[in-house]
Amino acid sequence: MSKNLSGKQKQFFKKRAHPLKPIVQIGKNGISTEVLEDIDRVLAKRELIKISILQNSDETNETVKEALESIGAIVISQIGRISIVFRVASEPKYRDVSAAYFETFGEGIDHDN
Fold this sequence. Notes:
By secondary structure, the protein is α+β, with helices and mostly antiparallel strands. It has helices at residues 7-17, 33-46, 61-69, 96-105; strands at residues 22-26, 48-53, 74-79, 82-86.
């Protein structure tokens, strides 16, 4: 799957992310190595998450997007200070979202990590 998603592909992920609460919050310390490691661990088991940039953070959506892409994540959407983020889980047993994606679109999602 390329990082340039079609509207239907984005909608697929947004629909599944709608009931999710932000799991990681980026605060005044910004998107540090520790925060990226936490996000990496969470994505390894959940594939699709929401991340919140708190009001006291100096981070912008663009800097957060660049940092997330550095760990192989795809930023599906950024609305306000909330980002929807996806990455294929490293272990097949955690690939619920990517399996549903395959069933819907008939194509797999590239697994880089």
